[in-house]
């Protein structure tokens, strides 16, 4: 009986913590073929296979309910290496199933854009060794390229952007240094290419919440 009550409590507290919409979940196996075709149609490396990303600890600030439930300590982020485009095994981060499906396709497009040349394009390193700032610079660059090369993606990006910003932490409720970094990330999402780097964090500050619209490790 205690085990049943414990499972029920965990389910209720996890649901109360928010941030997930199981009724709108889309699994990678449902869109794996479509995402692969989309990636290659946009010029992505035809030799890359699509596979599930593993979940990694992110260390970002979590809500009190999330900490009580022990949820959201790890996240599976999209990433790309020389052999594989890795996408989350499932997505339930938005309340609409169509948005979760669109996120898969956007991530495939972003991965394809990363390797596409553009006139006047230069590598985005911004002179920093901070991994978070490098990720910000490179994903802004890939986003700009994706929206320039395939303007039909703009409407999809705007829908995903609105849903992403609504799901991110409110800077007004963060400590000053973390709030400044969150505001920089929001500017980079709203106006890709406009943010050169992220402001530094004090030693014990939590890293920013991972950005759903970006690839990790770019």
Secondary-structure-based class equals mainly alpha
Tell me about the biggest sheet? 3 strands, mixed
- Give me the side-by-side strand order of the main sheet: 2-6-5
* Average pLDDT: 84
> How many H/I helical runs?
7
Q: Compute the gyration radius: what is it?
A: 18 Å
In the predicted model, the low-confidence regions spanning at least 5 consecutive residues are 4-18, 64-71
Give me the strand/helix succession: HEHEEHEEEEHHHH
The quaternary structure here is single chain
Overall body shape: globular
Query: Which bin fits the share of residues in helices?
Result: 40-55%
Beta-strand content: 5-15%
How many angstroms separate the termini?
A: 48 Å
User: Tally of extended strands?
Assistant: 7
Describe the structure.
Mean pLDDT is 84; it is low at 4-18 and 64-71. The chain is globular and about 45 Å long. A hairpin with a 3-residue loop joins β5 and β6. α4 crosses α6. It has helices at residues 2-17, 28-41, 64-69, 97-114, 131-149, 154-167, 176-190; strands at 26-27, 49-52, 55-57, 74-76, 79-80, 84-87, 90-91. It is mainly α.
